[in-house]
Specification:
Blueprint: H1 2-15, H2 26-73, H3 77-90, H4 95-107, H5 111-126, H6 132-137, H7 140-155, H8 159-172, H9 178-190, H10 194-201, H11 208-220, H12 224-237, H13 239-245, H14 263-278, H15 283-292, H16 294-314, H17 324-328, H18 331-346
Helix pairs in contact: 1-2, 2-3, 3-4, 4-5, 4-7, 5-7, 7-8, 8-9, 9-10, 10-11, 11-12, 12-13, 12-15, 12-18, 13-14
């Protein structure tokens, strides 16, 4: 490099204001030609070396990525993880390798390793803090890495740090990560921040998990009519959750068709949120009083029958659930029902 810099300096001084070799005296042309030739050779050597090094790095990275993705696609997670760990050793700040390493560790149930990999991936893009504008300009996989770290932290019990990510995604990227709003509400709920939990739950589209936990939070904040009103909606959205929480089995068909109204959904919800309900004194008894009221039972039966008829009309045994819950919920009827439930409790 020192040679090329010296040649450039000499060439700059000699060629200043010169348009061609014909401008030089005959005895100087040979020396100028030699200077330019040597400059051409040295600059070409440096350019070729740089390109070769760049191509070698590119080819090495591409090979790592190709092999890792092939192993991931065939669920060979141990193989993929080994390749990705080697790749990260070679390219320690490469977001893509770190992100896939987090994904593979998650799939293997290695939550701490997943959290570490996702954290490094997020740092590779944002540095020390999250940045909304940088995220908007980045690839979608960057936000998935943020969500991946949040979920890993949540599963590991590090609720404060998980909450920071859930709220950031839910606030700035709600269209893609509306579920993070629900999880922000659930974390606040677990921490006893009931008002904040209600605020986040109310910003999430209606579905069973939201309704049950919102009903619970309203009960805990002594909004009893709102709690009863919300829980009746929750029973219609997925009756199996209430039955599971109350230790009852059989006797009720789903009111809402599809996965949201299914027993599988109910099991997943109860597994995730049982500690919320068991940690709230009197909540299950309150829910039981709402559930067993004669008007509520009649309403649930009617909703179940309507759902069954709709499934038959669908022909293939399935139907789109979007909007179905709203069809079953007449606000005036439910409000009147909730008031009567409370009057029965008070008598």
């Amino acid at each position: 490099m020192k040679v090329i810099l010296e040649l450039l300096g000499d060439a700059s001084r000699v060629l200043n204001g010169v348009e061609g070799l014909g401008d030089f005296r005959p005895d100087s042309r040979r020396r100028v030609r030699e200077l330019l030739t040597q400059l051409h050779i040295e600059s070409g050597r440096i350019l070729e070396t740089g390109v070769d090094e760049e191509m070698e790095e590119f080819d090495g990275r591409a090979l790592f990525l190709e092999k890792a993705l092939e192993a991931i696609s065939t669920s060979e997670h141990d193989v993929a993880r080994g390749i990705l760990e080697d790749a990260v050793s070679e390219f320690p700040e490469d977001f893509e390798f770190l992100n896939y390493l987090g994904l593979v560790a998650w799939e293997q149930g290695e939550l701490r390793q997943a959290e570490i990999a996702y954290h490094r991936a997020v740092q590779a893009v944002f540095g020390s803090g999250l940045d909304v504008e940088a995220a908007k300009e980045a690839d979608e996989s960057v936000l998935r890495a943020v969500e991946g770290r949040a979920l890993a932290l949540y599963q590991l019990g590090d609720l404060d740090r998980a909450l920071e990510y859930f709220e950031w995604l839910g606030e700035h990227f709600s269209d893609e990560y509306v579920g993070c709003r629900y999880l922000a509400g659930e974390v606040h709920h677990l921490q006893g921040n009931i008002r904040q939990a209600i605020s986040w739950y109310e910003r999430v589209p209606v579905e069973p998990a939201v309704l049950y936990n919102l009903g619970l939070a309203r009960y805990e904040s002594h909004q009893l009519e709102e709690a009863a009103h919300t829980l009746i909606k929750a029973f219609v959205s997925n009756i199996h959750i209430a039955k599971n929480l109350l230790g009852r089995y059989g006797g009720h068909a789903s009111c809402t068709p599809g996965y949201l109204g299914s027993e599988s959904y109910a099991k997943e919800f109860v597994d995730a949120c049982l500690r919320l309900w068991h940690g709230s004194e009197g909540s299950l008894h309150f829910m039981e009083r709402c559930f067993d009221h004669v008007l509520v039972q009649s309403h649930l039966k009617q909703c179940s029958e309507r759902g069954g008829r709709q499934l038959l009309q669908a022909g293939d045994g399935t139907m789109e659930c979007s909007g179905w819950l709203e069809q079953l919920q007449d606000e005036g009827t439910l409000r009147n029902m909730a008031q009567k439930v409370l009057r029965r409790m008070a008598s």
